[in-house]
């Protein structure tokens, strides 16, 4: 390297509550600042996080990912900041970065992250094209890697699998006092069974199937009267949200299911819950499974939500066939029937497994190595053979390129503001 800190430009759609956003912020907090400086560019200005990392510049273009002028504006940011590396996140942003790099004068190394499923067909069709421009496509799960190589025809050597990270010091099994305090805060009884499903409200997360399973148990008289399901998360699919709420009422579950909306801090929910459930139709590597198991919760997950083996079937929870309402209901009923000590032991086995198989430091070190490899490889490319931009971006005043996010304070989503 040249002795100076390497510049990284991170580009993401927004900082709404979500797995990818949370992972990025964790990475920024632990980035080796003796090696790197960074600028974080969000496309949209909405923020659901307080206490954003303050070691770099964080700003927003306050635009839409479908804005026709977005590639030109991103190219101007690239030419102004002149990063050694660009790391973009998620399909829509990857597409716009690919377009921006065809316009920018400065040609840095690039990494493009694909971190969730399902991957829309139009982006799978372009994945091979993206992979030719970037050093690696980074993914967090074997399921995402399989989709890119099998359907998107991305060469295996262009993919780097780096698992998600979770803070084992922050997510811990609660002491008795912490559990009692969390239950009081959330207005839950000391002895009632609390099931937690923290996920955005969407068809993919399958809250519909979960509510159907609970309705089936209730009709059979196998759901305790004081049972409570917590469904924190922002509304992603309005139709799915409406169907879920209708089924809650139709199934006689109105007093047993709560939808608190977007939550900035899930720790009290993990502390208050008896078990975690994630019945998704498709997943990358779900953060909530890692966090829930680290917090000592046994889990019921679908096979598609467990492609990376976070939950050990019969040991730290139960893995059910994806989309099977009957199997999901039976697994929930088994957890309810277990003694509290047995559930706690399952959760502790889950925590030990996550600590062993998905260590935080290993993932962060792997990402640092990848950054340095990408920058080194790009520096070795002769300038005359580097990609020539098709259309150079016109000069833009630096002060107008990346306005700072206002006060860096969390702002409630439209769904959360609704009465």
In short:
39% of the residues lie in helices and 13% in strands. It has 14 helices and 13 strands.
Describe the protein's topology.
Blueprint: E1 6-12, H1 19-30, E2 36-42, E3 57-60, H2 70-81, E4 85-89, H3 91-101, E5 109-114, H4 121-133, E6 136-139, H5 142-150, E7 159-161, H6 176-185, E8 194-196, H7 207-219, E9 228-230, H8 238-250, E10 257-258, H9 267-272, E11 275-278, H10 287-294, E12 299-302, E13 317-320, H11 325-337, H12 340-357, H13 360-379, H14 414-417
Parallel strand pairs: 1-2, 1-4, 2-3, 4-5, 5-6, 6-7, 8-9, 8-11, 9-10, 11-12, 12-13
Helix pairs in contact: 2-3, 3-4, 7-8, 7-11, 10-12
Number of alpha- plus pi-helical segments: 14
- Percent of residues in helices: 25-40%
* N/C terminus separation: 55 Å
What's the overall average pLDDT, rounded? 88
DSSP strand content: 5-15%
Listing every helix as H and every strand as E from the N terminus to the C terminus, the arrangement reads: EHEEHEHEHEHEHEHEHEHEHEEHHHH
Which structural class should the secondary elements be placed in? alpha/beta
Low-confidence stretches: 390-394, 407-419
The dominant shape is elongated
Count all strands and give the number: 13
Radius of gyration, in Å, reads 22 Å
Strand order of the largest sheet: 3-2-1-4-5-6-7
Task: Please describe the biggest sheet, giving its number of strands, its sense, and whether it closes into a barrel.
Answer: 7 strands, parallel
What does this structure look like?
By secondary structure, this protein is an alpha/beta fold. Helix content is 39%, strand content 13%. The chain contains 14 helices and 13 strands. Strands 3-2-1-4-5-6-7 form a 7-stranded parallel sheet, with helices on both faces. A 6-stranded parallel sheet has the order 10-9-8-11-12-13, sandwiched between helices. The longest helix is centred in the last third of the chain and has 20 residues, at 360-379.
């Amino acid at each position: 390297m040249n002795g100076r800190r390497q510049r990284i430009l991170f580009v993401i759609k927004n900082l709404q509550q979500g797995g990818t956003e949370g992972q990025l912020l964790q990475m920024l907090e632990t980035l080796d600042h003796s090696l790197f400086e960074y600028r974080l560019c969000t496309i949209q200005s909405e923020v659901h996080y307080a206490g954003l990392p303050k070691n770099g510049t964080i700003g927003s273009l306050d635009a839409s990912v479908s804005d026709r002028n977005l590639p030109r504006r991103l190219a101007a940011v690239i030419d102004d900041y002149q990063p050694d590396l660009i790391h973009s996140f998620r399909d829509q942003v990857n597409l716009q970065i690919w377009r921006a790099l065809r316009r920018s004068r400065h040609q840095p190394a690039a990494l493009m992250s694909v971190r969730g499923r399902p991957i829309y067909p139009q982006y799978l069709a372009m994945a091979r094209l993206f992979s030719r421009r970037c050093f690696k496509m980074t993914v967090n799960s074997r399921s995402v890697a399989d989709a890119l190589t099998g359907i998107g025809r991305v060469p295996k050597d262009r993919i780097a699998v780096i698992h998600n990270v979770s803070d084992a010091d922050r997510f811990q099994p609660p002491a008795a006092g912490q559990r009692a305090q969390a239950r009081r805060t959330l207005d839950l009884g000391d002895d009632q069974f609390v099931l937690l499903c923290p996920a955005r409200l969407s068809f993919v997360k399958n809250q519909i199937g979960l509510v159907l399973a609970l309705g089936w148990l209730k009709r059979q008289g196998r759901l305790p009267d004081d049972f409570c399901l917590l469904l924190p998360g922002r509304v992603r699919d309005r139709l799915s949200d409406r169907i879920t709420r209708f089924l809650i009422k139709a199934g006689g579950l109105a007093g047993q299911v709560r939808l608190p909306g977007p939550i900035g801090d899930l720790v009290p929910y993990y502390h208050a819950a008896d078990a975690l459930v994630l019945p998704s139709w498709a997943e990358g590597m779900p953060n909530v499974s890692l966090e829930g198991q680290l917090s000592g919760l046994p889990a019921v997950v679908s096979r598609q939500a467990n492609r990376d083996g976070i939950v050990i079937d019969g040991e730290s929870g139960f893995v059910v066939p994806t989309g099977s309402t009957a199997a999901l209901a039976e697994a929930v009923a088994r957890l309810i029937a277990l003694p509290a000590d047995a559930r706690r032991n399952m959760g502790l086995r889950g925590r030990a497994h996550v600590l062993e198989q998905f260590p935080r430091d290993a993932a962060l070190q792997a990402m640092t190595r990848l950054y340095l490899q990408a920058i080194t490889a790009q520096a070795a490319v002769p300038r005359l053979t580097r990609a020539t931009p098709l259309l150079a971006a016109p000069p833009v005043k630096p002060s107008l390129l990346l306005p700072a996010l206002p006060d860096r304070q969390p702002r409630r989503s439209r769904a959360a503001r609704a009465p």
